[in-house]
Every structure is written in C-alpha cells, then in structure tokens.
Write a structure and sequence with these properties.
Layout (H helix, E strand, L loop, with lengths): L8 H12 L2 H4 L8 H27 L5 H23 L2 H19 L1
Helix pairs in contact: 1-3, 3-4
Length: 111
C-alpha cells in the first residue's frame, strides 16, 4: 500500500547510496543482490506497511466489531504484518541482526 507520505524514488536511491558507503552493508551485496538498495527499499516499504497497519488497527479495537467482520479485519491486519515480516527478512543486514532473536524464539517454542 502506498500512502501520501511514501518516500520518493530519489529518497530511496539517496539512502541506498549512503548505505552503500557502510562496509558492513556493502559487503552483503553479490553480483545478483544489491544489499544497500534492498535495505533502503525495505525500510521505505516498512514505513508504508506500518502506516497501513496503524490505519486499520482502530477498526479491530471497536467493541461492536464481531464475528465475520472481526475475522476479516484480523486477516487485513495479518496481511500487513506478513508484508512487514517480508521486509524484515528480505535485507540480509536485518536478517543477520535478527538471527539471534529468531533462535531464541525457536527455543522458546520448543519448550
């Protein structure tokens, strides 16, 4: 979902250029993967998805929302959360940062 506050392509390119100057990020690129661009694009899409989630959240908190309407709203929120998860997992930089947390979650679920 694109909102009125979506970042411009120029802003994303600028961020990608600055990220490319950071060795810890630049070294995650390969001949087929541009990590600075992927990270910049993901951060921008995360902002948009967060805005979409926050716009939908009040509906699910309405006490009158029940049954099928509640389920539909829950599914809409879930779709936004899935979109966010994709953009948290797509950049190698974020995926690597979250690896220890993911391992802790898996251990907790196994208990």
């Amino acid at each position: 979902m694109r909102s009125d506050s979506s970042r411009s392509i120029e802003q994303i390119q600028s961020l990608a250029g600055r990220l490319a100057e950071i060795p810890a990020i630049a070294r995650l690129s390969t001949s087929t993967h541009n990590e600075p661009w992927t990270l910049a694009h993901s951060l921008s899409d995360l902002a948009d998805a967060s805005e979409a989630y926050l716009q939908r959240l009040p509906a699910i908190l309405t006490p009158e929302l029940q049954g099928q309407g509640l389920m539909e709203t829950l599914m809409e929120l879930t779709i936004e959360l899935q979109h966010m998860l994709y953009h948290l997992e797509d950049p190698r930089f974020l995926r690597d940062l979250f690896a220890p947390l993911r391992e802790d979650w898996q251990k907790q679920r196994a208990e």
